[in-house]
Amino acid sequence: MSQIRKITLTENEIPRQWYNIVADMPNKPLPPLHPGTKEPIGPEMLTPLFPMELIKQEVTGDTWVDIPEEVRDVYKIWRPTPMYRAYGLEKALGTSSKIYYKYEGVSPAGSHKPNTAVPQAYYNKQEGVKRITTETGAGQWGSALSFACQLFGIECEVYMVRVSYEGKPYRKILMNTWGANVYPSPSDRTESGRKILAQDPNSPGSLGIAISEAVELAMQDEQTKYALGSVLNHVLMHQTVIGLESIKQLEKAGDMPDIVVAPFGGGSNFAGIAFPFLRYNLTEGKTIRCIAAEPASCPKLTRGEFRYDLGDTVGMTPLLPMYTLGHNFVPAPIHAGGLRYHGAGAIVSQLLKDGLIEAQSLKQLECFESGILFARTEGIVPAPEATHAIATVIREAKQADEAGEPKTILFNLCGHGHFDMGAYEQYLSGKLVEHEVTQEEISASLAELDTPVIACV
Ligand SMILES: *Cc1c(COP(=O)(O)O)cnc(C)c1O
Question: Which of 60, 222, 303, 345 could join 267 via S-S bond, C-beta 3.0 to 4.6 A?
Fold first, then answer.
């Protein structure tokens, strides 16, 4: 019998609604707080930053939210995305477990990020917004938003962490190609940027600083709004198209996963693939394990604290309830740039605290080794972020074999690594070094926070 390697869906099977896990959570996420008064903020506090429809989605208790037809039409450029059975990897591992992966690298920007960039640009356009500001680290979010803004005729202004701006010129050119203006952050265009530059003229920048710059500009101008590529509830919800399609694809293969794995930066691609499966746990008593894979150099889920913290460095955002390493934490410059954020989203943090999801941390050499094995057995070169999921899958498959209990494992291959050849070059030439943050560094960063601890790991 011939093998079914790629499981595809038709355009008609692109989901018509996003899934909002908040509706099914036993404990709802805690509210955001005003950074000054520390009182819960109402939706109206967010109106300078986001269009009304996204604010509604941020706080909705509805289980399902309709995807506008205009957004579905754009999704059709790359959705439904393919799912593969990883026969090559399974064979190389000699495992009895079944491994599937959902491939989000087929989007124009090469990652899962356009799944939320497109609806965010759409709702901004609906409400007459002229310009969107944002930050980007490695450049994946900036390129996704540049693409989406161009489609809907909105100006896009991207603050790109300076080290990446200098080190990843092709990501910047991709954004320029889609018509965006890109500035290295910290810049002298904002008060936040000037403040950081006054302290350190050679600041390499960080995501937290770039967020401060983008938010500041949106606050100052009525026609300008801000967009975030992860962490927030509405962003995680938009990504659930990944898991909803995966369910249909696995149904076609006659399978259901025992384990779902995704890399973890702020939580959006993890939520995207895992939440629709977690729904079966929450509503039907299933016991699918959902594992978030984070880097050992930025381990907020496995070594951080659950407490209120700022989303940015300067203090322009509300306090969010999150597993965090502290908003001043500057992770080592590992190659999985998309995973170098100090905190996790409120929903994911609550789920972790309640023991409904799991987290593992991994060092980058194990990840790259797994990524190379994947490229050589499955053909696709994974984004460095995605290699964290692959390494976790390999660990789980080996454990299942040792226990003599083969599992069905699904993971999110959230992007390709075509813009990350510098990292692969370093690994292949033996120059890639290991990074693991020390307990002293974590404790020192958390000691700078003045909010009470809700839970420790
Ligand atoms: C942005 C990004 C991540 C990390 O962000 P999440 O919100 O946790 O998904 C991971 N992988 C890729 C390819 C990314 O672009």
Answer: 345
